[in-house]
């Protein structure tokens, strides 16, 4: 695997803004959603009396507002009986505080394609518990997002803004129904910026302005809306910049110049661990998969005495190998039955997404090949490239074995977990054709020494 260039100074905003592509995919938002949120909020912040520390906290909260987005995906699928990504996208485009609009949306979409009776049962259940359900879904998402922001070392102002992202000025928001100035100022900016972005991306500037005006004093702080119209909403330059492709790579220009944050090697490890949590939260069946694959592969690398830099990169590749699963619906990831051909094709696309996401990220680019090759097999029958063994690096071979062992010993929607002995036996049968002999040997030694952590049980939703 090509080594990371440790001499290069990586800006934290470069790493994290590139990773927001994965968050946009989770929510089915158009590419650049989080980055445009950030630009809208920071442009507004230029006209507000904020300290540099607050601006910095706001910059990262705007970028990472969706950090908790994967944590309610499985629940959305099971409640609505529909694709979590489409449902979330559509819910963002209706006025969820409007009973009529929400009711019509439910009638149109929940349980689409189900037989009449189960569908009626689902609709009744959703209708009766609508308030509790939506507050629960948003609570999970906001609390998890805030928790990961804290894990990444961001200040409490950033975490608080993420917690308040879906609160509304009139007190009818979620999860706590905070009202007016009880909602943190940065949280109000986040809520406003995300809505303007969603309507701008879907329908253009005119609709974004209309929604901002219409929801003044109900959803949004009137002072923020007035500031938006007094300063930026009518300026052509603002909308041009928002539409420009360059914004995706140039968002760092909006970070407060006297508070530029950098990512050293430890910070990159922390980011890989934080995103592993985002990935693992997507499905209750894989609630510790990435973290455990990384633990297993680290033990295997130790068995083979790999040098420290290669171990570090291998561990990061393991933490991020399934990041492409964020682009796959939970209707497929959590399906208890056999997948049909179209569903399989989507499932298999996750490694390609892993490649596409990681190749954008400065600091993680060198991991893209290894991380995305974890379903390849020595005989070339794997996916997504069908690479023959000769083209798989040693790291890719190790990761492929660790991934399979972890998956076999953890519960899945369609089967119970295998014991360690059963999993080793099954893998042994593939040595030389599917999996690398040396990698298998390293796994067996690590397992025999007893260091491999026990699998996590299926998480309650
Ligand atoms: Fe995978
Ligand atoms: Fe995996």
Which architecture of the largest domain per CATH?
A: Orthogonal Bundle
Per CATH, the superfamily of the largest domain is Hypothetical protein af1432
Rg, alpha carbons: 23 Å
pLDDT averaged residue by residue: 90
Spatially, the strands of the biggest sheet line up as 1-2
Structural category: mainly alpha
Q: Per CATH, what is the topology of the largest domain? A: Hypothetical protein af1432
User: Tally of extended strands?
Assistant: 2
Helix and strand run: EHHHHHHHHHHHHHHEHHHHHHHHH
Strand content: under 5%
Number of domains: 2
Please estimate the helix content: 55-70%
Distance between the termini: 38 Å
* Annotation field: number of helices: 23
Which stretches are poorly predicted, pLDDT < 50 over at least 5 residues? none
CATH level 1 name of the largest domain: Mainly Alpha
Could you characterize the architecture of this molecule?
- This protein has 461 residues and is an all-alpha fold.
- It has helices at 12-26, 33-45, 52-64, 73-80, 84-93, 99-109, 116-128, 130-151, 156-163, 185-203, 205-214, 222-232, 236-243, 247-250, 265-280, 289-303, 308-320, 330-333, 341-358, 368-371, 394-408, 420-428, 437-448; strands spanning 10-11, 262-263.
- The chain has 2 domains: 32-70 and 136-262, Orthogonal Bundle (Hypothetical protein af1432); 265-448, Hypothetical protein af1432 (Orthogonal Bundle).
- Helices cover 59% and strands 1% of the residues.
- Strands 1-2 form a two-stranded antiparallel sheet.
- α16 packs antiparallel against α17 (308-320).
- The relative contact order is 0.12.
- The structure holds fe (ii) ion (2 copies).
- One fe (ii) ion binds at residues 289, 321-322, 403.
């Amino acid at each position: 695997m090509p080594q990371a260039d440790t001499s290069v100074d990586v800006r934290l905003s470069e790493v994290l803004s590139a990773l927001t592509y994965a968050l946009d995919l989770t929510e089915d938002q158009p590419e650049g959603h989080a980055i445009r949120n950030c630009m809208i909020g920071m442009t507004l912040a230029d006209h507000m009396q904020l300290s540099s520390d607050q601006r910095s906290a706001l910059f990262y909260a705007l970028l990472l507002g969706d950090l908790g987005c994967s944590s309610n995906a499985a629940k959305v699928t099971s409640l609505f009986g529909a694709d979590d990504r489409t449902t979330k996208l559509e819910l963002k485009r209706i006025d969820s505080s409007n009973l009529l609009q929400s009711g019509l949306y439910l009638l149109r979409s929940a349980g689409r394609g189900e037989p009449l009776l189960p569908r009626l049962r689902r609709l009744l259940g959703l209708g009766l518990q609508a308030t509790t359900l939506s507050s629960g879904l948003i609570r999970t998402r906001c609390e998890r997002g805030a928790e990961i922001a804290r894990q990444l070392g961001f200040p409490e102002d950033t975490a608080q803004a993420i917690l308040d992202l879906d609160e509304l000025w009139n007190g009818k928001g979620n999860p706590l129904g905070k009202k007016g100035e009880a909602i943190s100022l940065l949280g109000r900016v986040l809520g406003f910026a995300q809505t303007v972005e969603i309507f701008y991306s879907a329908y253009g500037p005119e609709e974004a302005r209309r929604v901002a005006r219409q929801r003044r004093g109900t959803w949004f702080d009137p002072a923020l809306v007035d500031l938006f119209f007094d300063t930026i909403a009518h300026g052509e330059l603002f909308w041009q910049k928002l539409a420009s492709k360059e914004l995706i790579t140039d968002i760092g220009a909006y970070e407060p110049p006297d508070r530029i944050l950098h990512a050293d090697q430890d910070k990159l490890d922390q980011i890989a661990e934080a995103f592993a949590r985002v990935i693992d939260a997507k499905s209750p069946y894989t609630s510790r998969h990435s973290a455990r694959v990384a633990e297993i592969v680290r033990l295997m690398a130790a068995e083979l005495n790999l040098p420290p830099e290669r171990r570090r990169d291998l561990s990061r590749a393991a933490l991020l190998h399934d990041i492409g699963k964020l682009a796959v619906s939970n209707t497929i990831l959590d399906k208890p039955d056999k997948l049909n051909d179209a569903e399989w094709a989507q499932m298999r696309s996750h490694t390609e997404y892993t490649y596409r996401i990681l190749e954008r990220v400065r600091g993680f680019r060198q991991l893209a090949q290894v991380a995305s090759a974890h379903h390849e097999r020595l005989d070339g029958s794997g996916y997504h490239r069908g690479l023959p063994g000769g083209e798989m690096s040693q790291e890719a071979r190790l990761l492929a074995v660790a991934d399979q062992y972890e998956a076999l010993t953890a519960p899945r929607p369609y089967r119970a977990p295998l014991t360690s002995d059963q999993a080793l036996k099954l893998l042994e049968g593939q040595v030389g054709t599917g999996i690398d002999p040396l990698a298998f040997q390293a796994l067996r030694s690590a397992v025999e020494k007893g260091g491999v952590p026990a699998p996590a049980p299926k998480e309650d939703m």
